[in-house]
Automatic annotation (TrEMBL):
PANTHER family in UniProt: TRNA-DIHYDROURIDINE(47) SYNTHASE [NAD(P)(+)]-LIKE
InterPro entries tied to this protein: Aldolase_TIM, DUS-like_FMN-bd
Record's protein name: tRNA-dihydrouridine(47) synthase [NAD(P)(+)]
Family annotation (SUPFAM superfamilies): FMN-linked oxidoreductases
Recorded GO MF terms: RNA binding; tRNA-dihydrouridine47 synthase activity
Biological source species: Camelus dromedarius (Dromedary)
Domain DUS-like FMN-binding: 76-128
Family, as annotated: Belongs to the Dus family. Dus3 subfamily.
Catalysed reaction equations from the record: 5,6-dihydrouridine(47) in tRNA + NAD(+) = uridine(47) in tRNA + NADH + H(+); a 5,6-dihydrouridine in mRNA + NAD(+) = a uridine in mRNA + NADH + H(+); 5,6-dihydrouridine(47) in tRNA + NADP(+) = uridine(47) in tRNA + NADPH + H(+); a 5,6-dihydrouridine in mRNA + NADP(+) = a uridine in mRNA + NADPH + H(+)
Main EC class the enzyme belongs to: oxidoreductase
EC number: 1.3.1.89
Biological classification of the source: Eukaryota, Metazoa, Chordata, Craniata, Vertebrata
Length: 234
């Protein structure tokens, strides 16, 4: 392994298969301790843990768990995430006195977000620059899975899942106010060129068209439905 390993007590029921393996671990101290200590013993990289503030609304547990997690062997603990999508969001989070911040979905919507935070600016990235990022992604996919039919379609599936998030980004030059909020779903709009309009589409058929620009035609009968299956997608 080459990086930190995360234990993620999440609110999502599927994460623990409805068997207490998600955020319920926060109220199961013995089980949680066994998992953290056990993983820490077998890993040769730092163990980091992401937790919520609590399991129930307005009943916080995190402040009690933090010193225990340190004693159990966690090298770093992240409490939730701040839905960071701009350098302003990052600055606001850092002003609370935390040692660092975690970027989650924001990196799926804006993979150039880290540049914006580092340079403290909004990047009005062009559609061609965004396509170059996608091209790099497909290159890495083909390098990893192979450039045969199976490798191409494996890469395409991951690309399409990513495009189902990327389409939520609204170009800086088209926003009425800055910054864009992470939970804002943009209305239909025309981009400054055809590619920008295509990238803004909420339709899976258009994501497939983008994939064909990079990976060639899809196989006959190809169908794609994003894993999160949002009702807005067709």
């Amino acid at each position: 392994m080459s990086g930190p390993v995360w234990v993620l007590p999440s609110r999502a029921p599927a994460a623990g298969l409805c068997q207490g393996g998600g955020c319920a671990l926060m109220s199961r101290s013995t089980k949680f301790q066994q998992i953290v200590r056990g993983m820490n013993q077998v890993l040769d990289v730092p163990l980091t843990v992401k937790i919520r503030t609590g399991v129930q609304e307005r009943v916080n547990l995190a402040h009690r768990l933090l010193p225990e997690l340190r004693d159990w062997g966690a090298a770093l603990v992240t409490v939730g995430n701040g839905d960071i999508l701009s350098y302003e969001d990052a600055n606001r989070a850092l002003q609370t006195g935390v040692a660092g911040i975690m970027i989650a979905r924001g990196a799926l919507l804006k993979p150039w977000l880290f540049t914006e935070i580092r340079e403290q600016r909004h990047w009005d990235i062009s559609s061609s620059e965004r396509l170059d990022i996608l091209r790099d992604f497909t290159h890495y996919g083909l390098e990893h899975w192979g450039s045969d039919t199976q490798g191409v379609e494996k890469t395409r599936r991951f690309l399409l899942e990513w495009l189902s998030f990327l389409c939520r980004y609204v170009p800086v030059g088209l926003l009425e106010r800055l910054p864009q909020r992470i939970n804002e779903r943009p209305p239909y709009y025309l981009g400054r060129d055809y590619l920008e309009t295509l990238m803004a589409s909420q339709k899976a058929a258009d994501w497939i068209r983008i994939s064909e620009l990079l990976l060639g035609p899809v196989p006959p009968g190809f169908i794609f439905l994003p894993k999160h299956k949002a009702n807005a997608y067709k």
